[in-house]
Amino acid sequence: MSRENAEQLLKAAMQDEKNTQEKVQRLQQQHERRRLEKQW
Q1: Max CA separation in the chain (angstroms)
Q2: Closest Cα to residue 18, out of 8, 28, 10, 7?
Q3: pLDDT tens, residue by residue, 1-40
Q4: Which of 31, 17, 30 is nearest to 9 (CA)?
């Protein structure tokens, strides 16, 4: 495997991880909002 190929795979994995983290964060924020709305 060439160095460029390895770097491409690493970049793709890092981008995928970033997308996953953003998705989890959005879901947590939605959950927090829902919890705050129902405290009455």
Answers
A1: 60
A2: 10
A3: 999 999 999 999 999 999 999 999 999 888 877 766 666 5
A4: 17
Place of tokens 């964060």: 25
Give the dihedral of Cα atoms 30, 22, 20, 10; nearest 10 deg: 180
pLDDT of residue 29: 87
Which stretches of 1-40 are DSSP H helices? 3-37
Residue 1 to residue 26: CA distance in whole angstroms: 36
Establish how many alpha carbons lie within 13 A of residue 11's alpha carbon, considering only the half-sphere containing its beta carbon: 6
Q: In this structure, what token pair is assigned to residue 37?
A: 């709305």
